[in-house]
Write a structure and sequence with these properties.
alpha+beta; Spore Coat Polysaccharide Biosynthesis Protein SpsA, Chain A; eleven-stranded mixed sheet; three-stranded antiparallel sheet; 32% helix
Length: 469
């Protein structure tokens, strides 16, 4: 901490600290103690005082991936082997589930952690409840209590913990639900100074979803996983209730392929869809953001007219625990940083709160997909958009509350039909009803066939709503 304050650019922070007492002083001291002065110097030099150029490799080629459905008999046998392996990993306690849940529901017009937003189409269960019920069923199915790690943020950690306590952890064993908090990074003015966000606090912001990895290290979660024999981390985001959190095929392929970090991909609906692009460069897998991808590559077509760069990223991964240990071994996050120019309110030297009208500072964040090119081996498995991806980012329109609820209902209608339960449909083939199946009862298609029965479960009525448990 003292090394940070000795820097001439940080003299205002030093003077402020010297005037503080009690809890206010302790709060600022704690924040400063978490800053590595050498790393701060490098960040200011490389990301603030100069603007790093985004360099797109010249040798980009589309990344190979496993198709969702096997392409031949040999691959079908391999998929069966992988699925069996994945089931064994779940049964043997080798897998934990990790949801990134640091965001608020602000864009949804909701005051609270996004995970507490009511999302299901009939019962209005929250995202957290929906995941919890699915985890309970997966644990029951594989005969192992599967730990659930929830990464919160400083903004919503207290509210998230209180929500789970209020709802008795939705029936999950309390010890199996484990919270840890995402790290932060200080905002830095364009002249290299740390900013105060309030009289006793730096202007801090979350350090990006790549910070998940360092937070696992600093919170002790990695050591905890190792002591419990956990080898694999299933990573997904809280706004996607369709995320295949415990997919035996995905887990098994990751293991059999010897992959350190694996990803699901979605075939893009159009060249400019806002998904990161899976690419290869120098023999390494990487994701190029849609905003950085050259149009010539984005729009490139194969001879059959299909997109060359077809594979888009929905941020669903399996990560080997020992790979995370490698990336965080020295207590730092060994990933590149990304610069964002922002309007950051700050306390001026005369003690006034200044709200700038134009960008005045740099916020730095890391992206978890930047770990892919650092892995010795990677793997991609195709996903099904209708079954695996329903992000809740907006109130209406694309990737919205509306579209998510519709997709949940359509998926569950299909599962009812798998069980032999008739679903009324409109002339265009879409369900003429709204249905919801409790994930505590059915967590996958196999469950639907085995646990739903026309003799016990009435068919939904045309134009109506129906709930199944």
């Amino acid at each position: 901490m003292m090394e940070t304050l000795k820097q001439p650019k940080q003299d205002f922070i030093a003077r402020t600290l010297s005037r503080l007492t009690g809890d206010s002083r302790k709060n600022l001291e704690k924040q400063l103690s978490e800053i590595d002065p050498e790393e701060l110097d490098a960040l200011i030099r490389d990301y603030v005082l100069k603007k790093p150029e985004t360099r797109i490799p010249s040798d980009l080629t589309p990344a190979p991936f496993f198709r969702l459905k096997p392409e031949n008999g040999r691959q079908a046998a391999y998929y069966r082997q992988a699925e069996q392996k994945g089931k064994e990993l779940l049964s043997d306690g080798k897998v934990v589930l990790l949801v990134v849940a640091g965001g608020q529901g602000t864009r949804l017009g909701f005051d609270g952690p996004k995970g507490t937003y009511p999302i299901t189409p009939v019962k209005g269960k929250t995202l957290f409840q929906y995941f919890a019920e699915e985890i309970a069923r997966v644990s029951e199915k594989y005969g192992a209590v599967i730990p659930w790690y929830i990464m919160t943020s400083e903004l919503n950690d207290t509210a998230t913990r209180a929500f789970f306590k209020e709802h008795a952890f939705f029936g999950l064993p309390v010890k199996s639900v484990r919270f840890f908090t995402q790290g932060t990074m200080p905002a830095i003015s364009y002249d290299g100074k740390l900013l105060l966000g309030s009289p006793d606090s730096l202007a801090l912001s979350p350090n990006g979803h790549g910070g998940t990895l360092l937070a696992l290290k600093k919170s002790g979660a990695l050591a905890e996983m190792k002591s419990e024999g956990v080898e694999y981390i299933s990573y997904f985001q809280v706004d996607n209730p369709l995320a295949p959190m415990a997919d035996p095929l995905f887990l098994g392929l990751h293991c059999l392929e010897g992959s350190q970090m694996s990803s699901r991909m979605l075939p893009k609906t159009n060249p400019h869809e806002k998904l990161g692009n899976f690419c290869m460069s120098g023999g390494k897998l990487r994701i190029i953001e849609y905003s950085d991808m050259p149009d010539a590559l984005t729009e490139k077509k194969n001879p059959d007219g299909s997109l060359a760069f077809l594979a888009g990223s929905p941020a669903i991964h399996v990560i080997s625990r020992d790979f995370v240990e490698e990336l965080t071994r020295d207590g730092r996050l060994n990933l590149p940083w990304h610069r964002a120019d922002k309007k950051v309110p700050f306390i001026s030297e005369n003690g006034e709160l200044v709200k700038p009208e134009t960008p005045n500072a740099v916020k730095l964040e890391s992206f978890i997909f930047d770990a892919l090119p650092l892995a010795r081996k990677t793997m991609i498995l195709e996903g099904c958009r209708a079954e695996h991806f329903s992000p809740t980012k907006n109130p209406t329109g694309v990737d919205s509350v509306e579209s998510c609820r519709e997709m949940l209902s359509v998926r569950d209608a299909r599962r009812l039909e798998l069980a032999g339960i008739r679903v009324p449909r409109k002339s265009d083939g879409s369900p003429d009803c709204v249905v919801e199946i409790s994930p505590r009862t059915v967590c996958d298609d196999e469950d639907a066939k085995q646990r739903l029965n026309p003799a016990r479960h009435a068919a939904p009525q045309a134009g109506g709503k129906a709930y199944y448990e």
